[in-house]
Amino acid sequence: MAWVVLLFTVALWFILKKKTNALKKWYVVSLLFAIFSVSLAQTIVGGWLVAGLRKLIGLTHLPVGALAGALVLLALIVLVADIWKDRKADRLAQVAILLLPILFVLAAGPIAPTGRNLTDSFANISANGLAFLTGA
Fold first, then answer.
1. Could you list the residue ranges that cross the membrane (predicted)?
2. To the nearest 10°, the Cα dihedral for 12, 22, 96, 86?
């Protein structure tokens, strides 16, 4: 179902981009990117991204979980600061939103299970909402 939500989100992005000015609002862009990123994290492509990021972080010879946890906090700070600055979800905020669910899988410490639960819950809400809308 994650693939269906992923494709629906991309289609909705292009429809909103062509037909309305809704993508000028930061919360619409943030919500669409959040749905896209949690759906992506639930697919095999998300698994590949996690494996690639694990190898990339492993090249630093630092603990992968601890560094991923630090990157989660950095991504959250960047996300909030970028949106707070100009009330727009610019590229930096969009990248932070895309990376958060993937970093939650790698992270260790107290933030990791909360982030994973949040990602799973958001993916389930998205999938159930789409199923309700389509009658599936």
1. 27-50, 62-81, 93-112
2. 170
